[in-house]
Write a structure and sequence with these properties.
Layout: H1 21-33, H2 39-52, H3 56-78, H4 85-90, H5 109-112, E1 120-124, E2 128-130, E3 133-135, E4 140-143, H6 145-153, E5 157-159, H7 162-170
Antiparallel strand pairs: 1-4, 1-5, 2-3
Helix pairs in contact: 1-3, 2-3
């Protein structure tokens, strides 16, 4: 069961994903790092990473990667591409308290985390609708830098001074 072709069948429609983009990014990085590894090794690596991390976003990404691998294994089984089970039984490793991963499977958890950006505080200059949300004139809002750039470029908002933003949070 270690030598599966881990590919999804093209005829099957995958369920729509409703995961946060940062979780999907972690999942895709993990799957890319483990793409050339046998399934059992990939699952052991993910289990080891799950035992090490406490960050919920990272754990969700790792669990999502585990689910993706299991789905691929199920698809391979449906295509009758699973190896002979007797060969797998003969190669069962001896149990140990804690297995050390080979050096090529060590994954830096910090490298998997998405880059955090500091929010930008803006003051709305005129009534507008942003992402389906109505913002009245004079409203103070906290947005991501990418959204702030578009609002400032369209003259709908102006950046607030740091002192004004801190005073607004204190009230």
């Amino acid at each position: 069961m270690n030598k599966l072709k881990l590919k999804m069948s093209s005829g099957r429609n995958a369920a729509p994903e409703k995961l946060d983009p940062s979780i999907v990014a972690v999942r895709e990085k993990v799957l890319a790092l483990l793409a050339d590894e046998p399934m059992a090794t990939a699952m052991a690596t993910i289990s080891d990473l799950l035992s090490e991390t406490k960050d919920s976003e990272m754990r969700m990404g790792l669990l999502s990667a585990r689910i993706k691998i299991l789905r691929r294994r199920t698809e391979a089984s449906r295509r009758n591409e699973t190896p002979d089970k007797m060969d797998s039984i003969d190669n069962i490793p001896e149990p140990s308290t804690r297995r050390d991963l080979p050096e090529n499977l060590r994954i830096d958890l910090d490298a998997l985390k998405p880059v955090k950006t500091d929010p930008v505080f803006l003051k709305i200059l005129q009534d507008c609708d942003v992402n389906g949300l109505h913002l009245p004139k004079g409203f103070e809002v906290e947005v991501q830098p990418k959204e702030a750039e578009s609002l400032i470029a369209s003259n709908l908002a102006e950046p607030m001074e740091a002192k004004e933003a801190e005073a607004g949070e204190a009230t």
